[in-house]
Amino acid sequence: MVFVPGYSENRLPYGVFVIRALVMPRSRERDAETDVAAVVVDRRAGRALTDAVGGQRLAVGRTPGRKVTVFGYPDSREQRGERLMYCTGSPSATSDRKQNVPCPMEGGASGGPWLAGFDARAGRGGLVSVNSFGDTAEGGSVIEGELLGPVAAQVHDRAERLRTDRGA
Question: What InterPro entries does this protein's entry cite (predicted)?
């Protein structure tokens, strides 16, 4: 697997980063709960991914209701996964660990970030969730994501240790 930051219509502005490791909660392996994971990528041309493109800060423990910007590469007829799309809205809690936000993105957007306090000029915000799945029930389209909490923080910390242990 690879990660291609900034991909758009066959353009690879920062190149291709090879994914070296996938980190997910142990509970996901056992019972398919907690839909969150992190990847560790190798350096490219001697540069770490965050040195090449920057990064987002992890913002765990944020409650739904405040505005987020949701990103993804949906496989819709118009885009076919070739362009980064986004929606902005205020999420609602759907359970103790999940939330959804109005957004018409279709399949293929999974794993895209939900950024709070997104600054479009800087391209930065706080990562508060990731796209898990979409639903078109009840007269509208929504995307659902985890409420990031202690498990997400543990996954992030494990990925960081792998990254720094191996110089990625």
Answer: Peptidase_S1_PA (IPR009003), Peptidase_S1_PA_chymotrypsin (IPR043504)
